[in-house]
Amino acid sequence: MTPEINITIATMVVSHGGDLTIRTQLQECEFYYPTGYRSFVSLTRNLLTRPVQSSPVDIEYRVRLKANPALRKQSRCTSQSAMIRLSSRALVAVLAIPIVLYLVLALGFLSRSLPEPVLPVKNSPYNKHLERPNGDTSLLANATFVVLCRNSDLGDVLWSVQQMEDRFNKQFGYPWVFLNDEPFTEGFQERVSALTDATISFGTIPREHWVQPEWIDEDRAQEARRQMGMDRAHFIPYGAIFTASDRYRNMCRFNSGFFFRHDLLKPYKYYWRVEPGVRFFCDLDYDPFTFMEHNNKTYGFNIGIYEYKFTILTLWDTVKEFMRENPELIPEDNMMGFISDDAGETYNLCHFWSNFEIGDMDFWRGDAYTRFFDFLDKKGGFYYERWGDAPVHSIAASIFLRKEQTQFFSDIGYRHEPFQICPQGEDWTKRRCSCDPTVNIDKSMSCIPRWEGL
Fold it and tell me: Which of 48, 196, 339, 378 has the maximum number of C-beta atoms within 10 A of its C-beta?
């Protein structure tokens, strides 16, 4: 097929008085013919506009290159930044830099076709054909990205999707599933869909999977939220605005026991959880989904930290009660050593940070985890305390799985505030990472050494 570059001359309209700062980022790309001929062209990306509430304000203006994957693999791009300051007392319209000459140059050398990339994929009973953006129907894993978000998260969602597409998914074309406890707006769907050629599905979470169950004592739950929100003696994660919120608890319970039951996710086996506003720092030239499949991996992670014990005061006692009542479900060669320093008597608070997960949903759908979640759910700790999906998933993986069924993705540069993981050495260079390799959660307050030592 003939490679293409799509360039949109964007118009940004902002209002309100005062100084307005517009941060632009241009990108110079070096393209190659198979014969070695090369040409340079600078491109601009259609602007991601957002309402301006006050000024000064920074608006990021990024490059987007849409071309044949084989072409992109033979290209190099170097970012350049520019700053524009304007004074705005009325309506200001800003047009993108004229690029007619660039278009002529780009289209001239892109009229030739390049060979399609060949991605080695093994046969598997779990594979299915998925249409890829470049028309290639190579077998991929039966997998999807899943994003739980609100309409108000649009800006952060665009940020996350763009990075995942640019760093990985433009080469593979895995579908996206977006879930919300309210219907997505048409504007949200339109803006997100513009960032990818992959299949996208937008779904609403069933009320019974989201709201606080009727059997929860609301007075007790409300008092628990109030006490945690007022607690000044202990540091409570995310601040009182979250810990005092029933919506946050709904989210933790949904991610713990229901996301994989949603109708839009039922067709899929593997998932990669992506959250709004996260960073993906590095190129990914292999498929983590097929890696999981071919190596019989069930759960993948890349950050491990300690939980705040004041949010889960009775969680471990509940887990021990479950294990005593269901010993047949607990294999002897599990990962108990990751979450306990005394053979299960106490919980050391280690957990995998679940905002990054690559996993097999059949594990969550299985009998052992279903019984485990239902047991925890009936105790009410999601609402009477603040049990999070991270310790729930991590404890389940540790008591039900062997270490070789889990995978530490140390080569995927990632940040979710306030922690990040950045590849080191050759991986940092090879994957064109933009993170600072000296800023790495694995060098402080990390549980990863415990997992590695199993």
Answer: 339
